[in-house]
From TrEMBL:
Top-level division of the source organism's lineage: Eukaryota
Domain Integrase zinc-binding: 1-32
UniProt xrefs under PANTHER family: RNA-DIRECTED DNA POLYMERASE, ZINC KNUCKLE (CCHC-TYPE) FAMILY PROTEIN
Name by which UniProt lists this protein: Integrase zinc-binding domain-containing protein
Pfam family, one: Integrase_H2C2
Encoding gene per record: Vigan.01G206800
Species of the source: Vigna angularis var. angularis
Phylogenetic lineage: Eukaryota, Viridiplantae, Streptophyta, Embryophyta, Tracheophyta
InterPro entries: Integrase_H2C2, RNaseH-like_sf, RNaseH_sf
GO MF entry, a single one: nucleic acid binding
């Protein structure tokens, strides 16, 4: 923008330049990253016995089934054995003031 405006001016110049850069494939591929490098990735240690190290996650946004709308997933990292727990979500029943 600064380089173009040093030599040229027209009405809605900023809007036109922004639209051109957004549509230009070379401009999009040449953008520099604004995040710090991730550094060295370290693998997670291997557990020595089952249920020593677990992961948990929620599956949400499901249609209601007998009042249950959420599934809690618990997985043992060593054996990959999983437990699934049905949960009721009270989020939809609360009204926002």
């Amino acid at each position: 923008m600064a380089r173009v405006s040093a030599q040229f001016f027209w009405k809605n110049m900023h809007k036109d330049i922004t639209a051109f850069v957004q549509q230009c494939m070379v401009c999009q591929q040449a953008k520099t990253s604004t995040t710090l490098p991730a550094g060295l990735l370290q693998p997670l240690p291997i557990p020595h016995q089952i249920w020593e190290d677990i992961t948990m996650d929620f599956i949400v946004g499901l249609p209601p089934s007998e009042g249950f709308t959420v599934i809690l997933v618990i997985v043992d990292r060593l054996s990959k054995y999983a437990h699934f727990a049905l949960l009721k979500s009270d989020f939809n029943s609360k009204k926002v003031a």
